[in-house]
């Protein structure tokens, strides 16, 4: 399961984070970032107005195809991290966000929820 991908937050995410099949959690940091205004897509439209969703999605794809990719220029560009606990994983995401990398708020919220559920479950 991934927590976020490059395409998350309408392609504004600099991190690709997932629970690793080998154990622990892996975070890949992007080297490049798109420059310009990325049109938003309302994914909820898939269940209410597919035609409108398709128009938004097509506009976003057309915009992405024309956008320049530039080096992010932060200390961890292109790095991959592997953490062995949810707490370390949360701290890693927080550190990367504090360094200037983009990652949706819901990622940290989801990690915190998993920690709370784990701690509430008796062994």
Number of helices: 4
Instruction: Please give the oligomerization state of what you see.
Output: single chain
First-last Cα distance: 23 Å
Main sheet properties: 4 strands, antiparallel
* Spatial sequence of strands, sheet with the most strands: 1-2-3-6
Rg, rounded, reads: 17 Å
Strand content: 15-25%
Q: Can you give a write-up of this model?
A:
It is built from four helices and six strands, in the order E-H-E-E-E-H-E-E-H-H. By secondary structure, it is an alpha+beta fold. A four-stranded antiparallel sheet has the order 1-2-3-6, with helices on one face. A two-stranded antiparallel sheet has the order 4-5. Strand 2 (15-19) and strand 3 (25-29) form a beta hairpin. Helix 3 (86-98) runs antiparallel to helix 4 (105-120). The longest helix is centred in the middle third of the chain and has 17 residues, at 50-66. The protein is flat. The two termini are 23 Å apart. 17% of the residues are buried. The mean pLDDT is 95.
Kindly list the characteristics that best describe this protein.
6 strands; two-stranded antiparallel sheet; 4-stranded antiparallel β-sheet; single chain
């Amino acid at each position: 399961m991934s927590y976020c991908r490059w395409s998350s937050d309408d392609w504004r995410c600099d991190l690709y984070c997932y629970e690793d099949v080998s154990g622990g959690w892996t975070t890949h940091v992007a080297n490049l970032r798109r420059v310009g205004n990325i049109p938003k897509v309302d994914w909820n439209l898939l269940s209410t107005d597919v035609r409108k969703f398709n128009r938004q999605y097509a506009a976003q794809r057309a915009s992405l195809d024309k956008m320049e990719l530039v080096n992010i220029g932060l200390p961890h560009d292109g790095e991959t991290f592997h953490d062995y606990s949810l707490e370390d994983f949360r701290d890693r995401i927080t550190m990367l966000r504090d360094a200037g990398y983009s990652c949706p708020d819901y990622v940290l919220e989801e990690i915190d929820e998993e920690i709370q559920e784990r701690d509430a479950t008796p062994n």
